Amino acid sequence: DIQMTQSPSTLSASVGDRVTITCRASQSISNWLAWYQQKPGKAPNLLIFKTSGLESEVPSRFSGSGSGTEFTLTISSLQPDDFATYYCQQYNTSPTFGQGTKVEIK
Amino acid sequence: EVQLVESGGGLVQPGGSLRISCAASGFSFSTYWMTWVRQAPGKGLEWVANIKKDGSEKFYVDSVKGRFTISRDNAKNSLYLQMNSLRAEDTAVYYCARASIFATWAPFDYWGQGTLVTVSS
């Protein structure tokens, strides 16, 4: 199985901050990586597919980059609605998720 | 509007069985791969199983192989997960989700609200 490791596990930030979350794969996954946002008690919401593709209706302040084994999710200017937990997911083979990054209010 | 609605969760004893369901609407169910993803309380996401649009291919995470069976009824727009020999570590919210592209492995663009399965004596 491909292991996905996110960092940091928790991130404290303020509204307006630029936020970056990193996801590393235990082996190359090409660009088969997605990012999700999850709020407490809710299902995950797909933000980014194929490393950098923005899902429909997702704000443009979200962006993704990377290839091979290292990937990043960037929020250019953090908004109140963005405080949540973020997960990366590889789908090069049977899907595996990172352990999550909680973005909390500083 | 795409909707996925899970049902059938509940409390079951270790070693017991449970079948959970997912009713789909608002899209052409029979043309999409479908999947189950679970989340243990306070933990991260874990892919459990997926099934091809016609049910001819199925894949499982190692920890449930031989115990869980994914199936679908395209005439009823429904997805199922039969869970046998349940263990405490199977306790989780189980989400039904749709694969966003027509491929074996894909991101998931629509999710249900989840159904809680609790395995405890």
Report on this model:
The complex is a heterodimer of chains A (106) and B (121). Chain A has no helices and eleven strands. Chain A has strands at 4-7, 10-13, 19-25, 33-38, 45-49, 53-54, 62-67, 70-75, 85-90, 96-97, 101-105. The radius of gyration of chain A is 13 Å and the shape is globular. Chain B has 121 residues and is mainly β. Chain B contains no helices and eleven strands. Chain B has strands at residues 3-7, 10-12, 18-25, 34-39, 45-51, 58-60, 68-73, 78-83, 92-99, 108-111, 115-119. In chain B, the strands form two sheets. In chain B, strands 2, 4, 5, 6, 9, 10 and 11 form a seven-stranded mixed beta sheet that branches. Chain B has a four-stranded antiparallel beta sheet with strand order 1-3-8-7, with no helix packed on it. Chain B is globular.
Give the number of helices of chain B: 0
Number of helices of chain A: 0
Percent helix of chain A, as a range, is under 10%
Backbone CA Rg of chain B: 13 Å
Oligomeric status: heterodimer
Low-confidence stretches of chain A are none
Low-confidence runs of chain B (pLDDT<50, min 5 residues)?
Answer: none
Structural class call of chain B reads mainly beta
Q: Which shape of chain A, going by the Cα principal axes?
A: globular
Helix and strand content put the structural class of chain A at mainly beta
How many strand elements of chain A? Answer: 11
Largest sheet of chain B: 7 strands, mixed
What shape does the CA trace of chain B take? globular
Strand content of chain A: over 45%
Question: Helices and strands of chain B, in N-to-C order?
Answer: EEEEEEEEEEE
Largest interchain contact? A-B, 24 and 21 residues
- Overall pLDDT level of chain B: 97
Order of helices and strands of chain A: EEEEEEEEEEE
Q: What is the count of β-strands of chain B?
A: 11
- Ends of chain A: how far apart? 35 Å
